[in-house]
């Protein structure tokens, strides 16, 4: 290596990099030392919350959106408001009431969060675990704050409340990272209206489709789940709306009304193949579906179901 080449690669002093919260959150994504605890807790959650209507409700299936994010507004709103009232003379009782209501709201918030957390990717679960530790610490501090306030130790109650608020913001920051950076709770199905033009599109010869066995086909940029049941052909987008699992590798089953459904191989979300509606979570968003027809040349044609 000549002198000029070596000088190009010579290492200078490392630039001063200020630690940034998002770097710490990204490091948490890779924190493998949390995995043993995650496995233990996941097993416990799966035992305590079996698949069924209660777990579906905790995911938010009946309302079509994840239930956890809006519920977080209740404890957070109450506790921030309480911190503001603590600065206003003569509002001791109102502030204590807000702390108590926030604690009551923390219970369904935690339950919905636990249900969602149990069906995430490992990197998301690592961040989610620390997020939960932060919000659990906040709840414990607010619980202690309420006890202190009820015993007339208002100074201690306010101090514990402020400490709880700090823990809440730290946990909330990680919740934001989980939702917006790692896209937990977002709809991961392909956005058909942006990716498929209007009208009918040729897909494949009908004779290429096995009967009763799902296959993957592509239409432009997107992958499709295709299931033929004798003369009926059902087409959904293939990337599961929960976390983009491949539906064509899923299990075919029937719902309580006998309608054909597909079960996602990753976390068990169940969709009706006729219209993509959600039968069981953790998915809360409908799977985009397509109308189908077979033309005179035997070609399956599809267009998005409006
Ligand atoms: S990716 Fe999670 S249920 Fe499909």
Explain what the structure shows:
This protein is α+β, with helices and mostly antiparallel strands and 306 residues long. It folds into two domains: 21-181; 192-304, Rieske Iron-sulfur Protein (3-layer Sandwich). 46% of the residues lie in helices and 16% in strands. It is built from nine helices and ten strands. The chain has helices spanning 3-8, 21-29, 35-48, 53-59, 68-85, 92-117, 122-150, 154-181, 192-195, and strands at residues 201-205, 215-219, 222-229, 232-237, 251-254, 260-263, 270-272, 278-280, 289-294, 299-304. Strand 2 (215-219) and strand 3 (222-229) form a beta hairpin. Helix 7 (122-150) packs antiparallel against helix 8. The longest helix has 29 residues, at 122-150. The radius of gyration is 25 Å and the shape is elongated. The chain starts with a helix and ends with a strand. The structure holds FE2/S2 (inorganic) cluster. FE2/S2 (inorganic) cluster binds at residues 119, 240, 242-245, 264, 266-269, 282-283.
Structural class comes to alpha+beta
Largest sheet report: 6 strands, antiparallel
| DSSP summary: helix tally | 9
Q: In terms of per-residue confidence, which ranges show pLDDT below 50 for 5 or more consecutive residues?
A: 1-7
What bound compounds does this protein have? FE2/S2 (inorganic) cluster
Fraction in beta strands? 15-25%
Total discrete domains = 2
Radius of gyration: 25 Å
Mean model confidence by pLDDT: 92
Helix content: 40-55%
What is the total tally of β strands? 10
Terminal residue distance: 65 Å
Indicate the overall shape: elongated
- The strands making up the biggest β-sheet line up spatially as 1-10-9-4-3-2
Helix-strand string: HHHHHHHHHEEEEEEEEEE
């Amino acid at each position: 290596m000549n002198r000029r080449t070596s000088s190009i690669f010579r290492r200078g002093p490392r630039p001063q990099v200020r630690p940034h919260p998002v770097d710490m959150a990204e490091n948490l994504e890779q924190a493998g030392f949390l995995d043993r605890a995650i496995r233990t807790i996941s097993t416990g959650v799966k035992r305590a919350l079996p698949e069924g209507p209660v777990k579906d409700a905790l995911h938010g299936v009946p309302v079509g959106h994840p239930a956890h994010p809006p519920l977080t507004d209740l404890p957070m709103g109450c506790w921030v408001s309480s911190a503001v009232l603590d600065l206003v003379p003569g509002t001791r009782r109102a502030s204590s009431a807000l702390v108590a209501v926030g604690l009551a709201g923390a219970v369904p918030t935690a339950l919905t969060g636990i249900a969602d957390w149990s069906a995430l990717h490992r990197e998301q679960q690592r961040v989610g675990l620390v997020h939960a530790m932060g919000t659990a610490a906040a709840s414990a501090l607010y619980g202690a704050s309420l006890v202190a306030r009820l015993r007339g130790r208002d100074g201690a109650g306010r101090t514990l409340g402020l400490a709880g608020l700090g823990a809440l913001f730290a946990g909330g920051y990680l919740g934001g990272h989980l939702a917006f950076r790692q896209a937990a709770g977002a709809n991961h199905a392909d956005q058909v209206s942006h990716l498929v033009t209007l009208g009918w599109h040729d897909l494949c010869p009908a004779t290429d489709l096995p009967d009763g066995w799902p296959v993957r086909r592509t239409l432009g940029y997107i992958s499709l789940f295709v299931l033929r049941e004798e003369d009926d052909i059902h087409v959904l987008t293939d990337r599961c709306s929960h976390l983009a699992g491949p539906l064509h590798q899923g299990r075919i089953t029937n719902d309580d009304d006998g309608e054909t459904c597909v079960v996602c191989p990753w976390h068990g979300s169940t969709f009706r193949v006729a219209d993509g509606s959600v039968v069981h979570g953790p998915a809360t968003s409908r799977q985009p579906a397509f109308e189908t027809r077979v033309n005179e040349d035997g070609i399956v044609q599809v267009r998005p179901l409006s």
